[in-house]
Amino acid sequence: MSEPKRDAPRRYIVDGAGQRVLVGLTISETVEFEALDNPGARLGADLLVERRSVRQDGHGERWLELYVKHERAWNDWMAETRARLEKPCLLN
Predict the structure, then answer these.
(1) Residue 51: pLDDT above 70?
(2) Average pLDDT over residues 77-83
(3) What gap in Å lies between CA 77 and CA 54, rounded to an integer?
(4) 39: Cβ–Cβ under 8 A, 6 or more apart, which residues?
(5) Are 23 and 74 in contact (CB under 8 A)?
(6) How many Å apart are CA 90 and CA 14, to the nearest integer?
(7) How many CA atoms lie within 13 A of 70 on its CB side?
(8) Each residue of 1-30: pLDDT tens digit?
(9) d(Cα 37, Cα 15) in Å, to the nearest integer?
(10) Contact assessment for residue 37 and residue 6, using Cβ atoms and an 8 Å cutoff
(11) Which of 4, 21, 49, 54 gives 30 a disulfide partner, CB atoms 3.0 to 4.6 angstroms apart?
């Protein structure tokens, strides 16, 4: 796998609950990833405590863990999409 870059494109989908999430991540993981990716962003009061504990536990390691989880899911999703597009249509 190539070195992850902080300027990589974001790839969102809408989950079953209608929430915009990064492919392969839950809504809470997406929020956490965005907070770690942009530490200067303003967060809601309910996330400040979680954000503080995440940063103390190794913000870089957690960011990388979420990034890799997203990247793997994205690659799988893209492979499935390509496979569907390459299937020939059968006419009877």
Answers:
(1) no
(2) 86
(3) 28
(4) 55, 59
(5) yes
(6) 31
(7) 26
(8) 455 555 555 699 999 999 999 999 999 999
(9) 21
(10) yes
(11) 21
CB neighbours of 84 closer than 8 A, spacing ≥ 6? none
Give percent of the chain above pLDDT 70: 63
**Three-class SS string for the chain?**
CCCCCCCCCCCEEECCCCCEEECCCCHHHHHHHHHHHCCCCCCCHHHHHHHHHHHHCCHHHHHHHHHHHHHHHHHHHHHHHHHHHHCCCCCC
Cα separation, 59 vs 70, in Å, equals: 16
Which tokens hold the place of 41? 């962003």
Single-letter amino acid, residue 63: W
Confidence check: pLDDT of 86 > 90: no
- Report the pLDDT value the prediction gives residue 52, as an integer from 0 to 100: 52
Which residues, other chains included, contact 30 with Cβ-Cβ below 8 Å and sequence gap of 6+?
20, 21, 22
